[in-house]
Design a protein that fits this description.
By secondary structure, the chain is mainly β. It has 2 domains: 117 residues, Immunoglobulin-like (Sandwich); 70 residues, no CATH class. It is 10% helix and 48% strand. The strands form 3 sheets. Strands 1, 2, 3, 4, 5, 6, 7, 8, 9, 10, 12 and 13 form a 12-stranded mixed β-sheet that branches. Strand 6 and strand 7 form a beta hairpin. The protein starts with a strand and ends with a helix.
Length: 200
């Protein structure tokens, strides 16, 4: 791998490379609500304005990584392949034609108001960026509900680092916990495994 490119425009983030990196590391400004286009062979997480995409199997990255709404400005991107690190080219097309609602006499002023913003679609009011990967399944038995009940079936993953029930997020989705991962319940740090044992 010698070159890489990340392009973002019209609410889509796309990828190009002459190799197949193990990791894509995106540093950005803003806050977005996004939908991953990556399947179960990838893991995408986000923390402190850094999106980390890890390839878990011998598969190719899709051209489209994710779609988003919100304010999003990519500052730099690194791609890693074994011991190689490549600084990717970043390109974008920033416009706000979807937001303009003015006649020709006001168009110039409207454009000046928006030309320096990196926003697509609706604003995001939640505290943190959330990138959801839908249509996953759990069959290992390593995920449990809050009461310790084992969960097997359709799940989706949030980039903050947790799974929820259902193939896609909806009002009935509930958070799942990994066995042996610490959780805070009633001000005590306990483990999902311990809850399961105590209940059974």
């Amino acid at each position: 791998m010698t070159t890489g490119k990340i392009d973002y425009r019209n609410g889509e983030v796309t990828y190009e490379s002459d190799g197949n990196p193990f990791v894509i590391d995106i540093f950005y400004e803003g806050k977005i609500k996004a939908l991953s286009n990556l399947g179960d062979k990838f893991l995408i997480t986000e923390k402190k304005n850094r999106i980390f995409i890890l390839r878990l199997a011998n598969v190719e990255f899709p051209e489209k990584l994710f779609t988003y709404n919100g304010k999003f400005k990519i500052n730099k991107v690194f791609m890693y392949e074994e011991n190689l690190k490549v600084t990717a080219e970043v390109t974008s097309l920033i416009h706000h034609y979807d937001k303009l609602n003015a006649n020709y006499t006001n168009l110039h002023n409207e454009w000046n108001d928006y030309q320096d913003e990196y926003r697509y679609g609706e604003d995001v009011f939640r505290k943190k960026t959330d990138i959801v990967t839908n249509n996953l399944k759990t069959v290992s038995g390593n995920l449990v509900l809050a009461d310790g009940t084992q969960y097997i079936g359709d799940v989706h993953f949030h980039s903050e680092g947790y799974f929820m029930t259902g193939a896609e997020h909806n009002e009935d989705s509930v958070r799942l916990y990994e066995i042996n991962k610490k959780r805070i319940v009633k001000n005590k740090i306990i483990r999902a495994k311990q809850i399961r044992r105590n209940d059974g």
